[in-house]
Design brief:
Helix content is 43%, strand content 15%. The mean pLDDT is 95. A hairpin with a 2-residue loop joins β3 and β4 (33-35). 15% of the residues are buried. The strands form two sheets. A two-stranded antiparallel sheet has the order 1-2. Strands 3-4 form a two-stranded antiparallel sheet. It has one domain (13-67). It has one helix spanning 39-67, and strands spanning 13-14, 21-22, 28-30, 33-35. It is an alpha+beta fold. The chain binds zinc ion (ZN) (2 copies). One zinc ion is lined by residues 3, 5-6, 9, 23, 25-26.
Amino acid sequence: MKCFNHHDRDAFGICSVCGKGLCLECMEKVNDIITCKNPICKNKAKQMRLWRIILIILIFVGILLILD
Ligand SMILES: [Zn+2]
Ligand SMILES: [Zn+2]
């Protein structure tokens, strides 16, 4: 796969929001989630992180309720 912005460069990562191939220069990391430099993708990555934490808490509370 090639970088979405640079067709002569190999992609090192894929934006987890829009799925575009990204070279090192085009890659951004938001809370361990790889995204492109698009602000929309960066915002979504932040939300994804938040939802993941909420989900983990919900699962944790669910396990506690089952065990009790
Ligand atoms: Zn993106
Ligand atoms: Zn690039």
